[in-house]
Design goal:
With 474 residues, the protein is of the alpha/beta class. Helix content is 35%, strand content 23%.
Length: 474
């Protein structure tokens, strides 16, 4: 029940309203008791309420559907996929109903999987087991009240101790990395009026961090930031300074110059850094990397490092203290440049926390073939088997589960339109057999009645949870 699922349901409702021959009952299922997915508890930072406001549209859509003849319903606490050793259609654990995909297909004529990409990609380099090495997703869930797919109720191993150091590192040049840097550097006084979690405020109150270093394998011409997020590092932090190596910003190779000229957003980002960042010589940057003093005079600093590939973490008594990098160089033509190692090494010292922000990947789901880090589909949303490439009848995909992690929230609108279009084509062509004799024809709630499970959270209970959260947060 994230953006992909909601936009798919909204498109289905539009089709039903516009075409008298189409009638649907749509159930939106979510692993959590409250809808929202990535917007609510995944990847949207708490200081971006304008982005999170799309939740209000989703909520109102569900409310408007109450009582409609062909309505859209919401059910929370439903996880699609089997628990280890599960051999029943549905099993309840800690109030969450775990339903196999075959069981789900016994409840519905068609299933659209909008499961996202919930697994954090990891580097798995030497030293990855040190205390202080985290995935970006772990910290994002820390400040957004999210839980990982296999959450067992115990996150005591995630001790975000930011009071042992002046500096932390983020691996990856994307918006999630900037979110982490911005949240840490903004601090609790600014963020306490947002919907950030209490546990995250406690972490930030004890933080002594004044520098966040962001590292990327390629150059400034290949940054994956958005202009808005990068500009916030200059404008939305008290006493901010952004640093970069002068040569990296001012001396692009020919292929990178072509890429920048062909992309207005990248050109604007590079101009922003060149104009407003403090550009350091190689010697000056190396001194800052090895210093343990942090940013002087109570300032907050963001360091943008390019051409850097992490190779090892080092520590003392099981705790991270430094990160070693190999310098890289770009090879290839414009638009296809890759980073190769040069053999030259350097490190950042006095660093007790590192966040690996290198992307997400699809969680395996029994019965769903995967390829290239996403569900195997025909290109338009029909799920296909892995070898023969034949459509799997009545199974569709949308969102990150369909295209892989990338894009903005609005990208899911076009994804949903495409998936719903091929769904309607299959329905009208008779490729989705319709029957009122399925074992659980009334959907997931019918299955729960038959199996004696009672963990479902319907819309009204879900809204009550949200209301209680808002009252407690004031």
């Amino acid at each position: 029940a994230g953006p992909a699922g909601f936009y798919t349901a909204i498109e289905l409702a539009k089709e039903a309203k516009a075409n008298e021959d189409l009638r649907f009952q749509v159930d939106i299922l979510d692993r959590l008791p409250v809808a929202g997915g990535l917007v609510r508890s995944g990847g949207v930072a708490p200081d971006h309420p304008d982005v999170k406001a799309v939740q209000n549209r989703f909520r109102q859509f569900l409310i408007d559907q109450e009582g409609a003849e062909e309505r859209v319903r919401f059910f929370g606490n439903v996880a699609v996929g089997l628990l280890p050793g599960q051999d029943s259609l549905v099993q309840e654990r800690d109030s969450v109903l775990h339903v196999s995909l075959p069981a789900l297909r016994m409840c519905y004529d068609a299933v659209v999987l909008c499961c996202g990409s919930e697994a954090d990609k990891r580097l798995r380099i030497p030293g990855s087991d040190l205390q202080g090495v985290f995935s970006a997703g772990e910290f994002v869930r820390h400040f957004n009240a999210g839980t990982p797919p296999a959450y067992d109720g115990d996150d005591s191993h995630l001790r975000f101790d930011l009071h042992h150091t002046k500096k932390v590192a983020v691996i990856g040049h994307g918006n999630v990395g900037l979110d982490i840097a911005r949240v840490i550097l903004k601090g609790p006084d600014v963020l306490k009026t947002t919907d950030i979690t209490e546990r995250a405020l406690k972490t930030l109150k004890s933080s002594t961090v004044s520098e966040v270093h962001l590292f990327g394998r390629r150059g400034p011409g290949q940054m994956a930031f958005s202009n808005k997020e990068l500009r916030e590092m200059f404008d939305d932090i008290e006493k901010p300074t952004v640093y970069a190596r002068k040569a990296h910003i001012l001396e692009l190779n020919e292929a990178s110059k072509e890429e920048v000229e062909a992309s207005r957003p990248r050109k604007r980002m590079l101009q922003l850094i060149a104009k407003r960042a403090k550009l350091l010589t190689e010697e000056e940057m190396d001194q800052r990397l090895q210093s343990a003093d942090g940013e002087p005079d109570g300032g907050r600093a963001t360091f943008l490092h390019f051409f850097s590939s992490p190779v090892a973490y080092s520590g003392v008594d099981g705790r991270l203290t430094s990160v070693e990098f190999e310098r890289t160089a770009l090879t290839g033509e414009a638009g296809r440049q890759g980073a190769r190692g040069t053999g030259e090494k350097y490190r950042i010292d006095g660093c007790s926390a590192v966040f690996e922000s290198i992307g997400y990947e699809v969680m395996p789901l029994q019965g769903v073939p995967l390829e290239r880090g996403r569900a195997a589909h025909c290109g338009e949303g029909r799920l296909v088997d892995g070898e023969a490439r034949q459509p799997l009848q009545g199974l569709f995909v949308s969102g990150w589960f369909k295209r892989g992690p990338g894009g903005i929230i609005g990208t899911n609108i076009w994804d949903a339109k495409e998936t719903v279009r091929v769904f309607v084509e299959d329905l009208r062509a008779g490729k989705i057999p319709l029957s009122d004799k399925q074992p659980f024809y009334e959907g997931i709630d019918d299955l729960c009645k038959e199996t004696g499970t009672s963990g479902l959270v319907g819309l009204q209970r879900s809204l009550a949870i949200e209301e209680a959260e808002e009252v407690r947060g004031k």
